[in-house]
Design goal:
With 407 residues, the protein is an alpha/beta fold. The chain has 15 helices and 17 strands. The chain folds into two domains: 136 residues, Aspartate Aminotransferase, domain 1 (Alpha-Beta Complex); 255 residues, 3-Layer(aba) Sandwich (Aspartate Aminotransferase, domain 2).
């Protein structure tokens, strides 16, 4: 289908509201995207008409909920081009997915002195779980810096892999710089050295097609609330060979087959890693959101956002008092910036909000990157498929007001 941004905007009811007497210009999708009506309807229907626990009943509502819930596994597998829906583990989002890898796969396998290679661009969700292993098991974290433009050289990541390296964990797209990383090259090089690769796909999956079969990675995590779906939903692709090496780290619910006083028999993967009552309606809502994106076409979304990104770069480059962090040629539609002078990111964000422009301000859960860039905080405008060039113009107007106030 052709890409019609106005038709897409009409699918998102919140975009018609005003904030502080101004039309809402929502530029914080990198933190959490807004929800289309089809997702809102699916959530409402799930609670109002179709709710029951899954996998545990033979009555109509339980079977209905189970069928809808399990169908999402196939939807996610198609979305990521995973070989099988059995490669998909549901969770509450990327944070849980990466922690699951840390506890289920890495913790039983890594010992003191073993290494994990990270890029300096990683979100805290792809840093803190590895710090747990550093604190508790003596694992060593090796960091790979980005260059002055915010690019991550795949060869530098590969060169950082040594005989004690047991995992490479990198983002597919920086949530601060917008840099898109060549994760296929990193995975190929790491596998040649016998090292598995985990990819944080939180940002990338909403902006471009993702093909885990082509990338060849061992783990690929996504989060539902960035994919126009509900918070508390997510999934992680796990390659079959890695899945066989994992141990469950949460117990209860459908992750077991039998429990006795002296023993427990676990369910088959992926359910072995899905303990307790899951986010039933949240997961169903995520599936609807992904189907909505696929109906538009990920190639169409990527092409539209690429043009929007180009236009935004041109407009921001015209502000010689604005410092945009990251100049990568691969940059997606995420722009972090500071203003010349003493204006703090929080002050800038507050002024923009008065004009109806919603941006993020702070460290964006990426403190090592902030330190590397030499800044305490930035403002971040993150775009989505429902944003327009008019939104960019509104951002520029609001930034010019900031400059007038703080210069």
């Amino acid at each position: 289908m052709s890409f019609d941004v106005q038709k897409i905007r009409a699918d998102f009811p919140i975009l018609s509201r005003e904030v502080n007497g101004k039309p809402l210009i929502y530029l914080d999708s990198g933190a959490s995207a807004q929800k289309p009506q089809v997702v809102i309807d699916a959530i409402t229907r799930g609670y109002a008409e179709e709710y029951a626990n899954v996998h545990r009943g033979l009555h109509f509502l339980s079977n209905l909920a189970t069928d809808k819930y399990e169908a999402v596994r196939g939807t996610v597998a198609k979305f990521l081009n995973a070989p099988s829906e059995d490669d998909i583990i549901f969770n509450s989002g990327t944070t849980e997915g990466i922690n699951m890898v840390a506890y289920s796969w890495a913790m039983p396998r890594l010992k003191a002195g073993d290494e994990i290679v990270l890029s300096i661009m990683e979100h805290h969700a792809n840093i803190v779980p590895w710090h747990f292993l550093r604190e508790r098991q003596g694992v060593v974290i090796k960091w790979v810096d980005v260059d002055a433009d915010g690019d991550l050289d795949p060869q530098k990541v590969i060169d950082a892999i040594g005989p004690k390296t047991k995992l490479v964990a990198v983002t597919h797209m920086s949530n601060v710089l917008g840099t898109v990383v060549d994760v296929k090259a990193i995975t190929t090089g790491a596998h040649e050295k016998g090292v598995p690769v985990l990819i944080d796909g939180s940002q990338a999956a909403v902006h471009m097609p993702v093909d885990v079969a082509d990338i060849g990675c061992d783990f690929y995590a996504i989060t539902g609330h960035k994919l126009y779906g509900p918070s508390g939903s997510g999934a992680i692709y796990v390659a079959p060979d890695r899945m066989k090496e994992m141990q469950p780290f949460m117990g209860g619910g459908d992750m077991i087959r039998e429990v006795s006083r002296d023993a427990v028999t676990y369910n088959d993967p992926p359910m072995m890693f899905e303990a307790g009552t899951p986010g039933i309606v949240q997961t169903i809502g995520m599936g609807v959101a992904i189907e909505y994106m696929m109906s538009i076409g990920m190639d169409n979304i990527a092409a539209y956002e690429s043009e929007l990104c180009r236009y935004t770069r041109e407009r921001l480059d015209g502000l010689n008092w604005l410092n945009v962090q990251g100049k990568s040629v691969t940059k997606g539609a995420i722009f972090s910036f500071t203003l010349d002078g003493a204006a703090h990111a929080h002050d800038i964000s507050t002024v923009l909000d008065k004009k109806g422009v919603a941006v993020r301000a702070g460290t964006h859960c990426a403190m090592p990157l902030m330190e590397h860039m030499g800044v305490g905080a930035t403002c971040r405008a993150s775009f989505a498929m429902y944003n327009t060039k008019a939104d960019v113009d509104a951002l520029i107007d609001a930034l010019e007001l900031c400059h007038d106030l703080f210069a």
